[in-house]
Amino acid sequence: MATGNAVQLSNKQQRNLTRLQAHDNARAARDGLASALNALEEKLNLPKRAARATARAKRKARQFADEQPGAALAVAVGVVTAVGVGVWLIVRANLDQ
Question: 6-15, 22-31, 55-64 — which is least confidently predicted?
């Protein structure tokens, strides 16, 4: 005859087990709250995000310049020309007034 191997816990042992479970649940809730707050801080910290985006753009620009120096030079000349023409138009418009 096989008897069940169920462990009988006293009331004190059951209460202690419940306290341990509550402690574990509280720890899990604190960990969840901490991760949620970290995610919010990461999402709402605009200066940090801007710094990362700037660093990423610089890295891509350097990689592009290393891989295709002629095209990078053409882009630089185009940007300088566009800025120069824009400044010239603004100055000319202001001088005419």
Answer: 6-15
- What is the token pair recorded at 65? 């310049």
Q: Is the dihedral of CA 59, 61, 64, 70 positive or negative?
A: negative
Q: What is the pTM of this model?
A: 0.49
Q: C-alpha distances in angstroms, 73 versus 8, 59, 60, 86, 87?
A: 80, 17, 15, 20, 21
Residues counted in the chain: 97
Enumerate residues 6+ apart whose C-beta is below 8 A from 29.
Answer: none
50-65 residue pLDDT tens: 999 999 999 999 999 9
Of 48, 79, 47, 45, the residue nearest 61 (C-alpha)? 79
Please tell me the distance from the alpha carbon of residue 27 to that of residue 24, in angstroms, as a whole number: 5
